[in-house]
Amino acid sequence: MKKSLRPLPPQLSLEERRANLESAKRARTERAKVKEEVSTSKISIFDAINDPRPSIQRMKVLELLEAIPGVGPARATLIMEKRKISLSRRISGLGPHQLRALRKEVGIMKIDPKRGSLIVMSGPGGVGKSTITQYLKNDPRFWVSISVTTREPRVTEKHGVDYFFVTENKFDQMIAKDEFLEWADFAGARYGTPREAVGEWRDLGKHVLLEIEIEGARQIREKDQSAMLIFIAPPSWEELENRLANRGTDSPERREARLALAREEMASASEFDFTIVNEQVEGVVSQMVSLATALEE
Ligand code: 5GP
Fold it and tell me: Which pTM does this prediction carry?
């Protein structure tokens, strides 16, 4: 039989090897510091889980649990097995169910994470809110709320991922049971933020982001004075007109209606705590991260 030749590993230069060693050393120091902080109850394991540094995200969950005062290796293993989390699982690989399960264990141990803040992001259609949201979905410090809506799913959308798609009846029931933190009518459909999940994720130390329209933002303002309201504005009105015009599929009437709505939405910017101009998505994201983390102090 023919043997396939495996390529040789790339040869690293002395410089590269030194840099690798340095970065591995830095990662070890960062991990040791986090473990020490957990072991002295300076931070909760959730503060560590929400730490975006790659060195911490790569850390094993087991190691983190072991660091909790009074836990140690045997109990840490038991917790992982009880909660059906693989012993080799790393922080970055923890799913929502596992995070909630760990929260229960930590609750029993009475070490609370810092509560996450509530951040509302609004802005006119076409300003790029969904791209910003996509970035923040990949940031361990944030959790993006999944809204409930009565509108039909678009072809690429999935139930439970983009929205929870429900009937008018079900939406009525949810209102009656006071299950929404806010809800509003928009373009012929209803949209609402499920209250329970928002509270749960904030308890897990995540900054919860709501990407909602203006009416909903106003309701949040009234209910929760500590919420941070951020308005995303286009670099200029012309730019927004171009973006809306380039959406392609709209009829001229529909485009006019979108523009009229955008004009109205732009007029409400002054009701928000901050306005961020979307020149470039990375810039907006880093400003949002700074604002959210400023709230932690
Ligand atoms: P779309 O149908 O294009 O996904 O969303 C239409 C509008 O509804 C957007 O402005 C979006 O921000 C807003 N929206 C999405 N979810 C919610 C929600 O839970 N509450 C409110 N008030 N608006 C929402």
Answer: 0.85
